[in-house]
Structure formats: structure tokens, C-alpha cells
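Q: Here's a chain of 227 amino acids. Please give me its 3D structure as C-alpha cells.
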Amino acid sequence: MLVVDDDIRILQILKLYLVKDGYDVVTCERGDDAIDLALDPQLGIIILDIMLPGLDGWEVLENIRRTSSVPVIMLTAKGDITDRIQGLDCGADDYIVKPFEPKELLARVKAVLRRSAAAPEEVRTITIGDLSVSLDNYTVILRGKKQEMPPKEIELLHFFVSHPNRVYTRDQLLDNVWGFGYYGDSRTVDVHIKRLRDRLGTNPGWDIETIWGVGYRFNIRKEEPAE
């Protein structure tokens, strides 16, 4: 486990509790140093503060998500809903606001690790026609060109292409893609889908369809046989 915070006192307290609970803990005080430490394939989870010297937590998380899907819990003094949404959009798995009880953090760590362990083995890279979506390196390739988009949009698109021709409600998409008790507006799903449509444009082989009053479906159209 990697814990990143510029407050040495917090690092000492968290390491004490986490080690006592059986975790191997590495600590770090700077964002730029955290990126190198996060490359360790043995890491099971990262606890990441937002306000850091060198690079802030958002930049560190963005760098991590380019190569890794290791669970990340954001740790911050900011409790505004926009910060929570930003953390989720950047690919965080959970979010805890300072001040907090170490026992609460332990409970969240265990919950995130349970979800990660219980998740079924998924196909990390899926290609449908001219669209390829990969969670190995968080890339989307459309018609041979890389599409720049934030991690949460990539995760939402990956979920859709992994479960084609099925209707999902907004709440189901939140549960499956955002991954934990999300307390924001479920319309965030609508916003993300609009962004996906704007980025990907129209395609004769597939689309994201709105099922009015229900939710959304990723349609894969069968090719018509040649006459």
C-alpha cells in the first residue's frame, strides 16, 4: 500500500493503524515522487492526498491511470461536491474528507479491496469494428486515431462495449462504473454520455441509444447480408 500526504503527522498515524491491521505500507510526501512509487506492480491500493508539493493529487492520479487500474482513495480537506465529482471523473475509487477517523479509512480501504477482489475477470481491451477501448493503458482508438478523454469516460465506454445491446438505468451505470456509494446527481451519467457522443460522433456499426424513461443501451448493429 502507498500513502501519499504532505503532512508527516498524518502519514505517521495512518502507517501506525494500517501496519497494525496487517498492511505493508510505503509513505511519500511529494506528488512527483509518488508517481515513481506507484509503478510498483505489487501495490494493492493507493491513498492519495490532493494538496501535494511537486504535483497535486489530480496530476498524480492522471499519471497513474495512464498505466494502472490500481484502486485509489483520494484524501483531502475539501468536501465540496465538485471535488468529489472531479475525483471520480479522474478515476478515483473512493473519496474521504479530512478530518476523519483512522478506523473510517480502514473500513473504506477494506471495502475498496473487497470490490476489487470480487470483480469478475474482465477483458481489458475490446475492439468493435473501428473502435478499440483499453483499460490496460486507458486509451480509446477510433478509426486508427487515439481519442483524448478522461478516465471515467473511458471506463463508461468500456462498460458499454463490454455489455452490448442491454439496457441500463442511470443508477445501474453509477453502481457499475463509478463503483461505490455515489451521492451526487445521477444526471452526471447524462453528461458523460453526451460527452462520449460528441467525441465519438456517429458510426454505422454502433451507437449509444437513449431509452426514454429507462436509461441507455449500447447498440451493435448487425451487418446486412450482401444481395
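Q: Can you summarize the key feature?
A: The domain at 125-220 is CATH 1.10.10.10 (Arc Repressor Mutant, subunit A).
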